Each structure stands twice: as structure tokens, then as C-alpha cells.
Amino acid sequence: MIRRLNEAILKTGAPIVVGLDPNLKFIPETIRKKAFAEYGETAEGAAEAFWQFNREIVDHVADLIPAVKPQIAMYEQFGLPGLAVYDRTVRYCHEKGLIVIADIKRGDIGSTSQAYALGHLGSTPVGGTSVRGFDADFVTVNPYLGSDGVKPFIEVAAGEGKGIFVLVKTSNPSSSELQDLMVQDGRGQMRPLYEVVGELVDTWGSGLMDGEYSDVGAVVGATYPEQGRALRQIMKHTVFLVPGYGAQGGRGRDLAHFFHPDGLGAIVNSSRGIIAAWKEEAYAAYGEAAFGEAARAAVVAMKEDIRGALEGK
Amino acid sequence: MIRRLNEAILKTGAPIVVGLDPNLKFIPETIRKKAFAEYGETAEGAAEAFWQFNREIVDHVADLIPAVKPQIAMYEQFGLPGLAVYDRTVRYCHEKGLIVIADIKRGDIGSTSQAYALGHLGSTPVGGTSVRGFDADFVTVNPYLGSDGVKPFIEVAAGEGKGIFVLVKTSNPSSSELQDLMVQDGRGQMRPLYEVVGELVDTWGSGLMDGEYSDVGAVVGATYPEQGRALRQIMKHTVFLVPGYGAQGGRGRDLAHFFHPDGLGAIVNSSRGIIAAWKEEAYAAYGEAAFGEAARAAVVAMKEDIRGALEGK
What we know:
The structure is a homodimer. By secondary structure, chain A is α/β, with parallel strands linked by helices.
């Protein structure tokens, strides 16, 4: 699947993933009003507003980008109706030819990780057949439980021709609290925990190469460019999924060294900066009704920002 | 909520939580056949089998125990029908007076953790009202993202009078890979990562005391009794949620020091050992149809095992 992702990046010229993380605050009033008129101020009403919003965004950006990254928490907070729209969004993005990176950050003991992996990337046996729960192309995975919590995801991904991104250095302010702790590695050297996790990801990924890169990727935040530089050296065949661009503070010029000279090796996510662009001063002229056009303009601007950074590298 | 949990532990004399982690392999054929006859070999059929199985188990153990711990992954693997039965199980356990510890192991950047927290412990604003997604009493939380990924759970728990259990030292074989790494703590001392996380949990929990104990608990695996001893010293006011008993290898006599002299301070989980007891040689005499009775007998035996260990302490 990473080969397909890289091909789509080269074809679109956009190492960009749009985060489909809807929030009622980002959704124009007309959509909210219509959804609430039909379903009331209920979870179903919120979910309907999410769906109408997502569809408009996807319709306006699908031809520009290789992939989307729905953050399942935004849907899960509305319970079953929310998760039904998560599922519908994944399916709709597939119809549009987009690769779906499900940001689920799951991770548990082996048998439980296997259930998550089957539910989000594979299929689960039922009697003489098997059924798909959700159907993403990649999922994000939390490494705190170690290899036996990650390997079931790798095994299912391998069987399905899909992939995963393991959290290594996350974009949030307090990611330093555990991830930057100096630890003694297997050779007795002191180094930050995220480097040890990076080495594990490199090892896990070596068994799942798909062309020049591995189907086991890494999450490395745009907000930590220096740490990203070190991690690039440790994980040479790993694609970085890079959150934290835009609203969280990351900029294109900080990210050039996340990429290899072939223009691959990283895919940068922006969520709020794209889907809520219509609320930003720079895109206010589009007006509320044209929020999809505003999102499209924001993708074009992000693409230029990153292309400029890579050309100036 | 931890006070209510402790009161329920004292009343039942059982510091025990039953893991409602259904698996088609544990479910008697008659239940599976009936569910598949009605819904086909589909996700709906699997979910119906889970529901009939869970209800029978809960009906047979509810009066003996304070709490249950559904592992959401087992339901999530069957997509929306699975999660509908997760939700139904949580509601049914509440009707039976049980405290529900949702084993979801979520954790993300701040705004995303807030969505998970609202979705599983609280309620999310929709227009002029707010709606509940899922409705557990406690959730488990992954600490890899640091304080800003955990605090939204604490804030929502505080507002709702609920609680959380943070992963500190998990029960799986490779938990040592990251959690046991020797790290340099804030005072320049070398110690295992799980101890640093234990100190964070102690700090986070000090702001959310509910009687003698905090609503911020810790997950400490039964399979690592020595590490549990050190963690007990670090987290004096923290209740330990202890997985890994039974099928994973933990025994009552290893766990006495997880408890304080008041008989509180820990609650031990068993999943397969209870819900699949009818498949064990020790309970085979109950037969397949009486799987609920077998589960009840397994709870009684577990209670005796732990009581014996605490009396012999």
C-alpha cells in the first residue's frame, strides 16, 4: 500500500493528507440547521452535519491529494451515529479513489491488537465466512505495549496489502514528557526514547518492504523538526506521517529534511487548516457557503508551501 | 467513582472485575447457531451471539462482583453491529448495578483526547443540548503522548464524578520493551520508565482524590508482581487495575502486595478464565448449556484465591 501511496503522491505532486476531523464549530450554520431540522439536536443530527460537511470537502479536494486521514475520535464522541458516518466517510473516500489513513491510535496486548487490526484493516471470521468491520488502508498504532502489541497490526497489514504508521514522536506540546526521556538503549548508550522507538519501527518495517519503502511507517510531528532530522537517519526506508502542520505551528520550510531527494519519505497532514479554512482571514472572501472552495484553495497553498520548501532544500 | 468502586468491593468481598471480552470461540454452539439462523453469518449475527452470551454471563455473576471490564476491541472488530452490542452491554451492566470499566486504551493530542473523553465518559454539545456517545464509569488511557493527552480525560472524569486507569506496566510479554527501559528521571536518577509513568499518575491523581483513593488509577499487570511492588510504593493513593490473572499466568498469591491492609488498592481482572470457564477441564462438568453457572463458579474460586492470598499476607 505504501507504493500506491507514493505513486499517488508523485502523480498529484502533493505529499499531503487532509485530516477529516469534523467539529460542529467548523461546520457552516446552514448545514447544521438543516441537519438539526431533520434529526433534531441529537447525535444523529451532528452525524448528518458531519456527513454533509465531509462530502463537500472531499468533493473539492479529492483530485488534488493522494489521501485523507479521518480522526476516529471526532466521530466516536457521538457514539454509534458518529461511527456510522466515519464508516460512510471511509467508503466515500474510497469511491473517490483516495487512500484512507485511519487515525485510530490503537494498541493493546497481542490478542486485542489483533481484534483491532482485523476490525480496521482486515476481516474477522464468522462461521464459514468473514466480515469487514471498518475498512481503512492504513491505521495509526501506539507502541507503548511493545512488539506484541504492534505485530498483529503488521501481520494483518501484510496479509491485506495495507500498512500502519506507528507513533514515534507526536506533535503535541507534552510529547516530550515520555518520548524525549533519555533512556539506555540495548548497547548501553543514552538516547531519547523516540529514537529507540524509531529503531524498533525500522526493524518491524524491514520485514514489510513494498518497493523502496516499508508498509510500516512512523508518525513524526511537524512541530519537532530537529527530532525529525535524527529520526530520518534512523529510519531510512520509513515514510513519515507528519501531523502538526498549520494550526499546530508546523511550516513547510521546517519539513524539507523529512523528505528524501526523490520527493518521497513523508506525507504531511493538515486538518483544521484545510477543512476550516473558510473561517480563516486568508480565505474569508470565499464566504461560508463556499467552504469547499476555501478548503481547495488551502490545499493548493499548502502544496505550494511544501513544494517551495523542497525545491529550496 | 473510585469511592463507589471501593464500597462495592467491600460489600461483595470481591476485588474482582470480570472482563467481558467475548470471542466466537468461547460462545456455545447453540447460541451461535441461533444467532446465525436469525441474522446469517454476518457482523449482526456475531453481535447477536455476543449479546446473548454477555447477558447470560452478567446474569450469573452480577451479584458477586463490583464491576465489569468490556474490552471494546472485541466489539469494534465487528464494526457498527459490534459496537451497538458494546453499548447495549454497558447499559445492561448499569441496569444490574455494576460499575463499567471500559477498556479502550485511548490517548491522543489534547483536543482529540477530549473527544474520546466526552464520547466515553461525558457528553458532547450539540446545538443547545448535549448528547452521550457511550457511557462508561471508567476508561483506560494510554500515556505515550504525555500530560496533555491524559488531562482531558481527567477533566471530563472530574466533571462527571467518574475515573480513569492509566497504563503503567501492562501484562503482556513484551511490555518490558519500552516500559522497562532505564531512563533518567527529573532528578538525574536512572529508573525504569514505568516508575516515571507511575510518578506522573500519582501527580495527576493527587488533584482528583475521592476519599482515600484517587479517581486516577493505574493499570499494573498481574504478570509482573515485582514491578507491582515498586509501583505500590510510588502510587500510595492509586487503585491498581490488574489484568493478566488466570489465562495470562497471574495468581492470587503473587498479588497480595498490590493491596493495602484495608483490603483495597487493587481490583483484579479475569476475562477468559471466567467467561470461558465452561471450556476448562475444572468446570467441564457444567456442560455447554450451563456456561453461566461455570462462570459463576470461576468467580467464586477466584474470590477465594485472592481472599486466601490477602489473609496469608
